[in-house]
Amino acid sequence: MVSMKLFDSERRVIEAAERLATALGSDPNHTVAAAAMDTAGRIHEAVNVYHFTGGPCAELVVLGAAAAAGAGPLVTIAAAGDQGRGLIPPCGRCRQALLDLHPDVFVAVPTDDGPALRPVRMLLPDTYFFPDADARRIVRFNRRYYEAIATARKTSTVRYEDPIAPGPAIFLFEDDEAPRTLNGTVIGVERLRLDRLTAEQARLDGFTSIDQLKKGLQGHYPGLPSDAEVEFVTFTVEAPDAVQ
């Protein structure tokens, strides 16, 4: 599985969860901390509530805390255990709740090479989708693409293991000191092999050649196979004065 680069903002989410976990002490009722970031860059924190009747995990409590603060869709979430356990992955119930309520959230998980981010959909392949969740969608972009997208010079993107659904979405520009968003609509998603992308598709993505596009993808997805199945996504955006 190809891992994505962690931005400083995403590292802050992990650090917030780990910092709160170290402050939990020896209370057996609160053993896990979670932190989640919204599209405005705010980080919300919470801890689990252990109880024999099935008290909620920290990830579920932080969803409620974020909702109480008017957060909207969440971008990144991380959980950490007490007693020095560090970053821990979410349980099955939390994965399902995250997928239904925040289908575009990235989840921090521990790996042999350190923390990594996974789209929540990658943590639950072939799963059930709750049809009435009515969740706001997010599409992430690097901050350097803001002007090109806002002025419609860039109207597409190529993604790998980062499922995007057609329909209205918040376009989030990552790794920015003050996170910026645009209201947009995904109008098409075409799945094809990386080596079958065309020069016209590269142009729509804001590149001057197919080789430049592939080089950019390799930089964003280190280790991307040359014959990888990718998604070519086309979109439109509202006028810049509609920025949230």
From TrEMBL:
Keyword Lipoprotein annotated? no
Record's keyword annotation contains Zinc: yes
**Taking every annotated instance into account, which residue ranges of this chain make up the domain CMP/dCMP-type deaminase?**
7-120
Q: Which UniProt keywords apply?
A: Metal-binding, Zinc
Organism superkingdom: Bacteria
Q: Which Pfam families match?
A: ASCH
What the entry lists under PANTHER family is as follows: ASCH DOMAIN-CONTAINING PROTEIN
- Name of protein: ASCH domain-containing protein
Q: Which organism is it from?
A: Streptomyces xiangluensis
Q: What is the lineage of its organism?
A: Bacteria, Bacillati, Actinomycetota, Actinomycetes, Kitasatosporales
